[in-house]
């Protein structure tokens, strides 16, 4: 909830009480340098014990509500036909308006099943923007991802409130070029993770649906962040300011033919699902669920987490839950803008995204500026962020580098985990690093997996810049910090 202070400043106030805490430690800079070196300058390889504030991701790192924790105690552990599944199915029908539910262990498992069932070699999949695992699954199935975002989507210093929109003319052009026979579905992501958590508008979604209907092409949605996308529609789109988040969610989902989602984000549980009102789609996927995930009524999810998921699906319609991360991100971004730190604007969902191209203009993309920035952030702060740039791409079939449209260091905000003081600390360290950005150099791969290399790849700093950065930090702050 946003409140106005007596001095006129607006700040987000957490609409919850903290009853259980977990101790964290801020290691001295020398120990942080050693940790990132041992981790191959890849923040995924850092150990939790070495991290002060963990902003790697909001996936599975959120705080559950008391109602979710209580529900976990009464789960039904029957392998088939468990009552816990029917609670989840009821929540999906009530909140999303969908009656056919296929549980999976997480979002990428849903992507795998969708790719297996719907995509054949030579297909093309238009979308507002890809996600890393989405592209991997769709391409492994023989498809080609076509990103048909509006040109403004790649402008990180923007005032466009809906940079997650699909370009309607480009969509029509793709359909005319490839024909509906080569397009298994059009995919919309709410919100576009790799563009900086940017939402699409309801108006755009309606126009996309009209085009899909006219050409008899299904509309698929990654609804992982549907609660936040709906919050943005309420706050930013004319005509929706008096609608509830619950109403906007149901209207949004009602325009789709099939959705999938990871429950590890908006519903603060650990699982995933595919859902639809199309019985044919449901029946096509259902036989493969036991092969890859688990029986129809548990799908590879623990029963306790399924209970939490059912509660979380309902809770994400509460405006204080739906708006908790967007408003913290907004505050985070605005504080960075005040310090002239180049971040993605307007503020999106999920995270504060630092534009590494603008932060480190002296580094070419071949030296992985987003990865270098993520490593540098950890060295000077103990804060773990995630590279979302060229390292998050994979090489082409000829082994050539595929450069990312954007080079972002993503500082994700897990739901109901961190407070204003944590954000202020991160802003302060980003400010110091920006003023010493000339000390940050590039990276090179020394171990490079063939797919999703950002998870396990190991890199080295060019010209040993990590040591130089740590020494400069220590000179100003002392060895303690």
Number of domains as seen in the coordinates: 2
- Classification by helices and strands: alpha/beta
> Considering DSSP H and I runs of 4 or more, what fraction of the residues is helical?
25-40%
Q: Which geometry do the CA atoms define? A: globular
Q: How many H/I helical runs?
A: 19
CATH level-4 homologous superfamily of the largest domain: Type I PLP-dependent aspartate aminotransferase-like (Major domain)
CATH arch. level architecture of the largest domain? 3-Layer(aba) Sandwich
| Total number of beta strands | 16
Task: State the CATH topology of the largest domain.
Answer: Aspartate Aminotransferase, domain 2
Average pLDDT rating: 96
For the biggest sheet, the summary is:
5 strands, mixed
Task: State the assembly state of the protein chains.
Answer: single chain
What this model shows, in words?
The structure is a single chain. The protein is α/β, with parallel strands linked by helices and 481 residues long. It has two domains: 2-58 and 322-477, Aspartate Aminotransferase, domain 1 (Alpha-Beta Complex), CATH 3.90.1150.10; 67-320, Type I PLP-dependent aspartate aminotransferase-like (Major domain) (Aspartate Aminotransferase, domain 2, 3-Layer(aba) Sandwich). The chain contains 19 helices and 16 strands. It has helices spanning 29-38, 66-72, 83-96, 107-118, 132-140, 168-178, 202-214, 226-236, 245-254, 279-285, 289-292, 303-315, 319-322, 324-338, 356-359, 369-381, 420-435, 453-456, 465-477, and strands at 2-4, 10-12, 53-54, 100-104, 124-127, 144-147, 186-189, 219-222, 258-262, 272-276, 351-355, 383-384, 386-388, 408-412, 443-447, 458-461. The strands form six sheets. It has a five-stranded mixed β-sheet with strand order 4-10-9-8-7, sandwiched between helices. It has a three-stranded antiparallel β-sheet with strand order 11-14-13. A hairpin with a 5-residue loop joins strand 1 and strand 2. Helix 1 packs antiparallel against helix 16. The chain is globular. The model has no long low-confidence stretch (mean pLDDT 96).
């Amino acid at each position: 909830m946003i409140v106005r202070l007596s001095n006129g400043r607006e700040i987000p106030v957490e609409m919850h009480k903290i009853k259980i805490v977990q101790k964290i430690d801020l290691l001295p800079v020398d120990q942080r340098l050693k940790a990132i070196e041992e981790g191959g300058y890849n923040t995924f390889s850092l150990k939790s014990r070495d991290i002060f504030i963990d902003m790697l991701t909001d996936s599975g790192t959120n705080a559950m509500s008391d109602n979710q924790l209580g529900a976990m105690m009464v789960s039904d552990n029957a392998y088939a036909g468990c009552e816990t599944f029917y609670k989840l199915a009821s929540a999906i029908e009530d909140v999303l308006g969908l009656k056919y539910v296929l549980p999976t262990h997480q979002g990428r498992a849903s992507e795998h099943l969708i790719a297996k069932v719907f995509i054949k070699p030579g297909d093309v999949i238009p979308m507002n923007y890809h996600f890393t695992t989405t592209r991997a699954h769709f391409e492994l199935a023989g498809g080609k991802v076509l990103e048909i975002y509006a040109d403004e989507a790649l402008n990180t210093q923007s005032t466009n409130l809906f940079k997650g929109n699909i370009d309607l003319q480009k969509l029509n052009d793709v359909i005319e070029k490839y024909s509906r026979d080569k397009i298994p579905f059009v995919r919309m992501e709410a919100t576009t993770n790799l563009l900086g958590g940017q939402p699409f508008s309801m108006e755009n979604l309606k126009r996309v649906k009209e085009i899909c209907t006219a050409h008899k092409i299904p509309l698929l949605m990654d609804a992982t962040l549907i609660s936040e996308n709906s919050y943005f529609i309420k706050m930013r789109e004319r005509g929706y300011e008096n609608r509830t988040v619950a109403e906007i969610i149901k209207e949004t989902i009602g325009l789709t033919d099939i959705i999938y989602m990871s429950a590890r984000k908006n519903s603060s549980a650990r699982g995933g699902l595919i859902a639809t009102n199309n019985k044919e789609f449901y029946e096509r996927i259902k036989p493969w669920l036991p092969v890859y995930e688990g029986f129809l009524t548990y799908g590879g999810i623990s029963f306790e987490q399924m209970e939490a998921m059912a509660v979380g699906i309902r809770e994400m319609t509460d405006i204080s839950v739906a708006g908790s991360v967007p408003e913290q991100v907004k505050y985070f971004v605005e504080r960075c803008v005040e310090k002239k730190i180049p971040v993605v604007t307007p503020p999106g969902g999920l995270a504060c995204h630092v534009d590494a191209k603008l932060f480190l203009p002296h580094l070419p993309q071949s030296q992985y500026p987003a990865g270098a920035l993520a490593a540098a952030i950890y060295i000077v702060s103990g804060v773990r962020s995630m590279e979302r740039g060229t390292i998050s791409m994979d090489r082409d079939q000829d082994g050539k580098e595929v450069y990312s449209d954007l080079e972002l260091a993503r500082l994700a905000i897990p739901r109901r985990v961190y407070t204003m003081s944590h954000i202020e600390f991160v802003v302060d360290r980003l400010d110091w690093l920006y003023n010493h950005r000339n000390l940050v150099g590039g990276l090179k791969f020394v171990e490079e997996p063939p797919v999703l290399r950002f998870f396990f790849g190991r890199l080295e700093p060019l010209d040993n810049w990590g040591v130089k950065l740590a020494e400069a930090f220590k000179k100003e702050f002392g060895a303690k910090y």
